[in-house]
Amino acid sequence: MQNEAKLTYSVEECAILLGLSRGTAYALCRENKIPTLRLGKRLLIPKIGLDRLLAGEGSPQNANQ
């Protein structure tokens, strides 16, 4: 996986990066604890949003709202 070139991650990729189960990652996305971007039926996690979340720069902004 070439993480540096990607602008977004799938929920499954995000789960692997964070060491979480797929179900836990989806639950955190539903609870707006992981920033998400919905494109059609796809649920994606923006790399910049995940980086900010991990850096402790406040709560994530959900693009769906």
Q: What layout of secondary structure does this protein have?
A:
Layout (H helix, E strand, L loop, with lengths): L7 E3 H8 L3 H9 L6 E3 L2 E5 H8 L11
Antiparallel strand pairs: 1-3, 2-3
Helix pairs in contact: 1-2
Summarize the structure in words:
- It is a single chain.
- With 65 residues, the protein is an alpha+beta fold.
- The protein has one domain (3-54): Orthogonal Bundle (Arc Repressor Mutant, subunit A).
- The protein is built from 3 helices and 3 strands.
- The longest helix is centred in the middle third of the chain and has 9 residues, at 22-30.
- It starts with 7 loop residues before the first strand and ends in an 11-residue tail after the last helix.
